[in-house]
Design a protein that fits this description.
The chain has 139 residues and is mostly helical. 63% of the residues lie in helices and 0% in strands.
């Protein structure tokens, strides 16, 4: 494993640890849809190198600022809800969700560009619709 990959993995672990400190923002582990992985990686690719140093603190501030919105999102669309039972909104409740939402707010076009290279747009579109970002992501 390269030194660069070790730094990326450590950054991802630090981000996930920060998110886990806010249990009202994510579903309980047994209710989640899949293990951490590709969605988090794509979201973290949308964090610019110059943002990484203080990103964990920035993410924590984002989650505190948007606590009510995150709680409502989980309550309305998270695992066990009617919308989730139809297979939509599968990202809601995942640990990477707050990271994706923060990137929607801070760097929506960078996130969309990274997402389009690796993942199906439907997951991001559903999350964007549920979150209702200020800046609509191009489709």
């Amino acid at each position: 494993m390269s030194t660069e990959q070790c730094h990326v993995d450590a950054f991802a672990r630090d981000v996930l640890a920060a998110v886990e400190r806010f249990p009202w923002a994510v579903a309980a582990p047994g209710e989640r849809h899949w293990p951490d992985g590709e969605f988090l990686n794509v979201a973290l690719y949308a964090v610019r190198a110059e943002e990484r140093q203080g990103y964990v603190e920035h993410l924590e501030a984002f989650m505190v600022e948007h606590r009510g919105r995150l709680e409502e999102l989980l309550r309305a669309y998270g695992p066990g809800t009617r919308p989730a039972s139809h297979g939509r909104y599968a990202l809601i409740g995942q640990p990477e969700t707050p990271v994706i939402l923060e990137r929607m707010e801070a760097a929506p076009f960078l996130l969309r560009g990274q997402w389009g290279k690796e993942l199906e747009a439907g997951f991001l579109d559903d999350l964007a619709d549920a979150w209702g970002p200020r800046i609509r992501l191009c489709r």
